[in-house]
C-alpha cells in the first residue's frame, strides 16, 4: 500500500480504450491510492470501445488540481472529446506546472497537445498521432514508456505493464 493517502483522477468520456483505462486504475488502487473518475457530468456512465462501463464520480467542473496527486488519461476515442473541455485543459496545465504525474497512453496525447504543455518535452503515443505530438513541440520516441519529468507516456495496450509501473513510481516519488 505504498500510495496510501494519494488521490488520482482518471479522465472519462465515451469510447475510452477499456484496457488503457482500467489497467492503470486497478494498478494504482492496488497500491492504496484513491482513484476517481471525472467526466463531463457527475454520475453519468460512459462505455468503453469494447463495452466496459465506467461512471463519473465527479464532473470536470469539480476537479481541483490542489487536491489531486496524479492524473490518468486513457486512450481510445475519448481523448478527442475530453480535450474539448476548458476545465480539463486548465487542470492538465495546473498539474503540469505543479510537477504532478500525468499519465497518458495511446491517443491520450491529444489532451496534452490541446493543453499546450508539450513544447520541448519527450513523449510517446500511438504512432497515429506522432505528427500531432511533434507539431505541438514534443520529441517523439517509439518506446514502450517515456518518462519526462512528471509526464509518463505509453504507446498502446501491450505497454500497459511498464506504463503502470512508471506511473506508480512517479506517484511514490512525489
UniProtKB/TrEMBL annotation:
One of its GO terms (molecular function) is peptidase activity. InterPro entries: C56_PfpI-like, Class_I_gatase-like, DJ-1/PfpI. Residues 6-169 form the DJ-1/PfpI domain. GO terms for biological process: proteolysis. The keyword Coiled coil does not apply. Keywords: Hydrolase, Protease. PANTHER family: DJ-1 PROTEIN, DJ-1_PFPI DOMAIN-CONTAINING PROTEIN. Belongs to the peptidase C56 family. This is Protease. It comes from Paenibacillus herberti.
